């Protein structure tokens, strides 16, 4: 898929204030510093679209972007900040659960995982939550350029084995690097295919 246009639309704390659910939507989420903003900017080929390295504790917002006037890309507030208060953690939980449950045009959630690390409890918990809620999701392993290809491969295998302990069906996954533009074509092709299925009568290319 060619990215012709990528525009910021709105930031919201409430799901009912998000743009009308008329287009398929893809949400990106992960632990702080996982490389979410960098991946979004790499996918859309817009360097400043998502703000990189946003500070923890900042207002937690659901950020909507519109791509090719055909689908929404959503930057969701992350989890796993070390210094977050109980209060803002509870607010995050409420907002994210509501978003996942109520956002009717949500086509897929991209859960971002740092490819350098062994499985981390907060990521596994979030994956379990998506699975239990029946929300479609895929994994995107980030920062693959930071280590050798074989090391990344080994870490991904370890991750998949960990998921196999709980799940019969394993999620699709992508190996990415924002600096190398790795995984870009694969993810955009995936989105293109889901878009076609989401709206068979419309031209979402
Ligand atoms: P976010 O907090 O999840 O949005 O993460 P950012 O996109 O702000 O990235 C956090 C840090 O990791 C920044 O210093 C980025 O430059 C760096 N980073 C993100 N993605 C990559 C990547 O694919 N490769 C490398 N080498 N660094 C990355």
Notes on the structure:
- The chain has 205 residues and is an alpha/beta fold.
- It has one domain: Rossmann fold (3-Layer(aba) Sandwich).
- The protein contains five helices and seven strands; from the N terminus they run E-E-H-E-E-H-E-H-E-H-E-H.
- Strands 1-3-4-2-5-6-7 form a seven-stranded mixed sheet, with helices on both faces.
- Helix 3 links the parallel strand 5 (106-114) and strand 6 (137-142).
- The longest helix has 17 residues, at 86-102.
- It is globular, with a radius of gyration of 16 Å.
- Guanosine-5'-diphosphate is lined by residues 30, 32-38, 52-53, 142-143, 145-146, 177-179.
In short:
The protein has helices spanning 36-44, 86-102, 121-133, 149-164, 184-198, and strands at 6-12, 25-30, 62-67, 71-75, 106-114, 137-142, 173-175. The protein is α/β, with parallel strands linked by helices and 205 residues long. The chain binds guanosine-5'-diphosphate.
């Amino acid at each position: 898929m060619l990215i012709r246009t990528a525009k910021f639309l709105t930031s919201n704390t409430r799901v009912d204030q998000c743009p009308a659910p008329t287009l398929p939507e893809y949400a990106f989420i992960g632990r702080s510093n996982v490389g979410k903003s960098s991946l979004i900017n790499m996918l859309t080929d817009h360097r400043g679209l998502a703000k990189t390295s946003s500070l923890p504790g900042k207002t937690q917002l659901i950020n909507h972007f519109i791509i090719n006037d055909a689908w929404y890309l959503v930057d969701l507030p992350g989890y796993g900040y070390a210094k977050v208060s109980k209060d803002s953690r509870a607010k995050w939980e409420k907002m994210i659960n509501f978003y996942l449950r109520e956002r009717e045009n949500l086509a897929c959630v991209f859960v971002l995982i740092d490819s350098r690390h062994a499985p981390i409890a907060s990521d596994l918990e979030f994956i379990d939550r998506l699975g239990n809620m029946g929300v479609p999701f895929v994994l995107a392993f980030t920062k693959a350029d930071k280590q050798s290809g074989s090391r990344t491969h080994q870490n991904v295998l370890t991750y998949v084995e960990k998921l196999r302990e709980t799940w019969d069906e394993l999620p699709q996954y992508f190996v990415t690097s924002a600096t190398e533009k790795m995984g870009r074509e694969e993810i955009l092709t995936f989105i293109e295919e889901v878009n076609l299925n989401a709206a068979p009568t419309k031209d979402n290319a």
